[in-house]
Amino acid sequence: MAGNSYGTLFKLSTFGESHGEALGGIIDGCPAGIVLDLENIQYEMSRRKPGQSAIVTQRKEEDEVQFLSGIFEGKTTGTPIGFIIPNTNQKSDDYSHIKDTYRPSHADYVYEKKYGIRDYRGGGRSSARETASRVVAGAIAKQVLKDIKINAFVSSVGEIFIDKPYQELDFSKIESNPVRCPDEEAAAKMEEHIRDIRKQGDTVGGTITCVIQNVPIGLGEPVFDKLHAELGKAMLSINAVKGFEYGSGFCGARMKGSEHNDLYNPDGTTKTNLSGGIQGGISNGMDVYFRVAFKPVATLIQKQEVLDNQGNIVELTGKGRHDPCVVPRAVPIVEAMAALVLADFYLLNKTYL
Amino acid sequence: MAGNSYGTLFKLSTFGESHGEALGGIIDGCPAGIVLDLENIQYEMSRRKPGQSAIVTQRKEEDEVQFLSGIFEGKTTGTPIGFIIPNTNQKSDDYSHIKDTYRPSHADYVYEKKYGIRDYRGGGRSSARETASRVVAGAIAKQVLKDIKINAFVSSVGEIFIDKPYQELDFSKIESNPVRCPDEEAAAKMEEHIRDIRKQGDTVGGTITCVIQNVPIGLGEPVFDKLHAELGKAMLSINAVKGFEYGSGFCGARMKGSEHNDLYNPDGTTKTNLSGGIQGGISNGMDVYFRVAFKPVATLIQKQEVLDNQGNIVELTGKGRHDPCVVPRAVPIVEAMAALVLADFYLLNKTYL
Amino acid sequence: MAGNSYGTLFKLSTFGESHGEALGGIIDGCPAGIVLDLENIQYEMSRRKPGQSAIVTQRKEEDEVQFLSGIFEGKTTGTPIGFIIPNTNQKSDDYSHIKDTYRPSHADYVYEKKYGIRDYRGGGRSSARETASRVVAGAIAKQVLKDIKINAFVSSVGEIFIDKPYQELDFSKIESNPVRCPDEEAAAKMEEHIRDIRKQGDTVGGTITCVIQNVPIGLGEPVFDKLHAELGKAMLSINAVKGFEYGSGFCGARMKGSEHNDLYNPDGTTKTNLSGGIQGGISNGMDVYFRVAFKPVATLIQKQEVLDNQGNIVELTGKGRHDPCVVPRAVPIVEAMAALVLADFYLLNKTYL
Amino acid sequence: MAGNSYGTLFKLSTFGESHGEALGGIIDGCPAGIVLDLENIQYEMSRRKPGQSAIVTQRKEEDEVQFLSGIFEGKTTGTPIGFIIPNTNQKSDDYSHIKDTYRPSHADYVYEKKYGIRDYRGGGRSSARETASRVVAGAIAKQVLKDIKINAFVSSVGEIFIDKPYQELDFSKIESNPVRCPDEEAAAKMEEHIRDIRKQGDTVGGTITCVIQNVPIGLGEPVFDKLHAELGKAMLSINAVKGFEYGSGFCGARMKGSEHNDLYNPDGTTKTNLSGGIQGGISNGMDVYFRVAFKPVATLIQKQEVLDNQGNIVELTGKGRHDPCVVPRAVPIVEAMAALVLADFYLLNKTYL
């Protein structure tokens, strides 16, 4: 019952329920002397926050982070950084109708079975609202990582995919549209599709691709804490994620070795990068890239069957303000978790004599 | 530099290089009083070991595990179980030719860059031989888990896939063919394909599907140590793995919520199981199932370009005895890692008051 | 740089500086379904808080704990309990005079050398104020432990000692005097001595004895995480602690085995208890008891030599409101840390099959 | 049930029972590229091993360590170092007489109650024989620490104490006598006393003082993992230890602040060192020193009352070959644990940016 911390040297612990007084966390192990760019942290929060565009939930949440410790005269002190994100404008009555019911493909049922009690308001601890704390820590981790560039973007919504390799994309366009897809043509189709889906009171899944550039050689700790294994765990810990692949991923399983091997250039770089910048669990200096699959949000604004705590199947019509598609808001979360993983390995590498 | 342990309450730590004196490990946290079935442990070892069939590497390794502690009069004592697997019949000269070269898509280069030194014989620590220790621990974890049934099998080799849902497969047939594919028709094609690939001196990738039945409700520790997140990390820590998906996986990312939600039966089971037996990171009592992608083995018995430590690209013809396709031997490894993950959460659940 | 968490299954992480906006922490792993007695938690806080009597610092701090998560309708939910203790009435100007100086036997110098920066106000993170968070978590741990009784008390101040074995003391008298010494005669002498010391602007050390009753047999995890080893670490982590001994302690080192062995009664209890309720690192069902040594507070209200950051030795007269003797207020902290250690082992013991 | 690992970055995991096939361990996190002095490791083993002099147990054990991994061409590779110490010349029949009995002040009773089973031969896992693995790891940690000098010595046996401060002792004399006491006069008395005690079939306790010199400023991780807190835990985890104090220790609790404070010299060193080289849990560059109390060995070669597993009190005369006083052989163990603690913090300090 202690799964709420992530990392060893750069460690995030989080707390908070969707409709409690506040969310928050502790970042332990952030190096001292870093001049924090607080505006940038709030900017990352704004990328995750609800109500930011017409294709995400219209909940209004300010998501303003308050730092309580670990920062003195603008610099990190090496002591733990405590922070809270007050919950404002929560409409708990939105959820009274699910007090005694378990919504399909939600965590209602398992939380009640596991803990014998649950805060049913907005999913309580199982709400994706918890990821706000991850974005705070990830934004700080990015500032620790300095030159390492982490760019995530939406690579598919439903059946609409970007049909280009990431090398042909302009990451500066990621924020140019509400979908966070750098391919403007695909972005337009995705946005339209999300609008349609929302009109139907339905939801749709999608994928996010993340590309990490300027990764130093040597990050990752075999044999269990391989770089891609930690990235995979970090991504799979994000709400609604169903799959993770890096480099050639599942396609690689269909290939022959003679097609798949990345031949070297004399300088140690490779001509191709099906390895995804990782060999034997250790970064090799090439781009690290991976893809994350998100299922469609389970909350529908439609009538559907739910189970109540008396063992009856009853009809329920979803209420509240929900995302028709989660991937646009999940982009900064994917980046944040990637930053947490890298920061931990980055600090660990400094222990080498 | 301490990534060689897995688990918290049921913890495996491993050591050993491919061509050192021995591999081995320590299992710390195995409950006391378990009458160990040592034959079964050796049986699991035999499923992983080289030379077991015509379609795997013809290296002859006995892989005999020797237990050194933690067992008294046939029972576990609750103290750490230390074990070793002596390395026998290693031909170190097989590898002298790669002493100064970095093979494409191997860990040679990154180990040397990360550690400044590497045991080049057979890949040293990066060799899949290390997984023998995992199979020992996994076999013991299975005995701890008793009624939980873990079945992994080969679901694809290259472009050859099983075209049935797992519910239509007979798991008792998994061991009926050298591929470890329960669909005999597909198995035959896969076996033939692997034989062809080997003739070409090439290799091919594949996927393994794992189905876990009779999982109690409540395993998994949100928000970071979700059941599927730990399963993902465990699988991604296995050599050559490129991807992990559970339940609907990447397909789920293409679906609508109205198609994807698993509606409840009155008893709390669900009519469908796109969730893969996990909601909010916690097992819900349905089958837990997932799919793991393995890249083709990088060692080819062909001439190919390699980098030497002087920065020259030279030609090298792969020698030694290698697997044309890794998935048949990886099946027990996938089961072992799944067992380690479940044993940890299974013990953790006992801490609830 | 990540030493701000304690425990594995019942885990406390803390943050906060003496003069920051707030202190606080996260308790991860508290079992679900516990009806928390919040008044009792605030009562424990009041035992630690400044200004509670004439012999402690006259700082006025409300030390009111605010819970932000993990509690729903009065019960713990099994999710992390986040809490904060706002810093009120801090007079930062009290400390401006030490901005550039390192006080003898304080952490000023080492924090600046280790981190390159320090929050000098009131000692920042090194202030004993941090222990307020420990008392919150300890009070909750006590509620988890139910029947296990933890009683700490002041057993010496300077040269004044209780001259009775703890078995002859009435623990209900611990709170009957401001010193928290259950022996009223000794208590009176201690109180008078502390008043004298304060008049001199000096400080004095002391010891606290802690007795834990109704401890179930079997707590403790050899070989490294022995019950007394964890108790020792927990106590030594408290500000100003210089030593720890349990059972016969340092006296035991002067004895012969024939004097020291605890002979058994037929029921498994022992006739004597020089072992301090622990054998081989595991509780044996007898009382667990130990003694903790606290040095005198380093801050004197006298003129003394300090080092400044230019390498000059200068004279400084201590200001602010400080404790002439720390042990009366440290009693609830010792109990809190003991409760954290026991709660962790208590939950761990439930993992046995 | 997983208390058999110590450390985070420099991590030792141990296994093995007194009379099993072998003891051993895994050192994970040892930096790569260290040319190991194997003779020195074996030398440290010889300081701990039985039969080394007339005043220790006359058991003959070779205690020869065999390294199985992590070392290549004489250098550490950064991969885990696995090692075993075969158990030779164990006379299991020596212990058959205690199969059904619980010896006073031994772990027999608690192991059986905790685990429901125990390997009764020679105390099984609770035997001090386990510390042989610690000495191996400690000897390697010392080689990692290079310039940091760790010297432990016997400072008292029973009522015989060294009556000089450590600054007046010549550490080069520690190995000049079988007691490992650098004060030859005291050493002679101690040796004579131990001979008398052994003649009586009795045992006696003692203390070990450890002095660590050339410690860099900044080791230790407040607020829980303070340097002295970890040293305390490490020492208390050694068999038979009852107490730990550092710097002024328990004497400090009797002093006034005006006597206790260590005034600074302009260079940041202090004129006195009652702080024991640690302030706020962080090393300050002065000598770190501490004292460890060992109880008398519980096994007497006398008739004494024991409990049997039927609840009867019966008479038993201790057999076997035991130490009349444990401290001479415990000196290298204290040094080894100190080295493990320092190596972990030493590596951790390298993570600072």
Features:
17 strands; Chorismate synthase, AroC fold; 353 residues; alpha+beta; homotetramer
Portion in strands of chain A:
15-25%
Given as residue ranges, the uncertain stretches of chain A (5+ residues, pLDDT < 50) are none
Tally of discrete structural domains of chain A = 1
The string of secondary-structure elements of chain A, in order, is EEEHEEEEEHHEEHEHEHHEEEEEH
Cα-based radius of gyration of chain A, to the nearest Å: 21 Å
CATH superfamily of chain A: Chorismate synthase AroC
N-to-C CA distance of chain A: 36 Å
Helix content of chain A: 25-40%
In this structure, how is the largest beta sheet of chain A organized? Answer: 5 strands, antiparallel
Please state the average pLDDT score of chain A: 94
Q: Can you tell me the CATH topology of chain A?
A: Chorismate synthase, AroC fold
C-alpha geometry of chain A:
globular
Number of helices of chain A: 8
Q: Which CATH class of chain A applies here?
A: Alpha Beta
β-strand number of chain A: 17
Q: Based on the coordinates given, report the CATH architecture of chain A.
A: 4-Layer Sandwich
Strand order of the largest sheet of chain A: 1-2-3-7-4
Tell me the structural class of chain A: alpha+beta
Oligomer: homotetramer
Q: Give the chain pair forming the largest contact, with residue counts.
A: A-B, 106 and 106 residues
